[in-house]
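REQUEST
  id: r-88c1
  op: predict_structure
  target: DUF429 domain-containing protein
  payload:
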Amino acid sequence: MNRFSHFVAIDWSGAAGARHKGIAIAIADAGGGPPVLVERGKDWSRTEVLHLLREELPPDTLVGLDLGISLPFLDAGAFFPGWEESPEDARSLWALIDNIAQDDEHLAAGSFVDHPEASRHFRRHGGREGDLFGGGRGRFRVTEVEQTRQGCKPYSNFNLVGAAQVGKSSLTGMRMLHALRGRVPVWPVDPLPARGSVIVEIYTTLAAIAAGRSASRAKIRTIEELNTALQNLGSPPVVGSGTIDDHASDALVTAAWLRTKGHDAALWSPEGLTPHIARTEGWTFGVP
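RESPONSE
  id: r-88c1
  status: 200
  body:
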């Protein structure tokens, strides 16, 4: 399945504000060479990433987004049990979030999590835990349950508290995915097209594990450690030495990992992925 020419990994951010140090983008060429950072001379904004995905992708690019492309559905038979407006599939979820948060700048989603019905399902700052959050670590998608079998410790997308939470990234990312409708397909919500670019959800810890790291040591903060990880993935090293931002290293390692795994037909047909899960919860690329 040798169909991709480039591999892009995007370390995303759901933080407040216009520009984000937490956004990093790396690209690897199928023809070889080290992965490289895509830089603009200043921190990325989410709307600039949206423009890149709409207008600037090389043909036949596999794009990995480090965020959850949906919310748990299978465990309760709905995204938001008890809410009449609870959507039936992931695309309708993206549309609902975007509609409620349409006046939020920078693709933020604060208005959605503050909505009287939606807020009942989220754990928010200030000890505000919705009565339908579920307690404990919260609700998980099927793919996130499978991630734990690979040694990872995913966080519920309904959890918006803590440094490791991914809920804010996921909700802002879903607004971007809604804005991309009809432009770039999102697997497995959309089937893998025979040609052209496609977006997948990634979990950078999976790439780090494949590169010889452990889940507890997934973050890479020196060029030397980065190049060891790249070597383990069969990639040439990057130039330099010393410290590196872990958002940048996440993107670089994951772009190289996508290059090694993007052509693996088995990863496009995971055992646990059913048509219903694909339509509602989606899946993380790399989870078998």
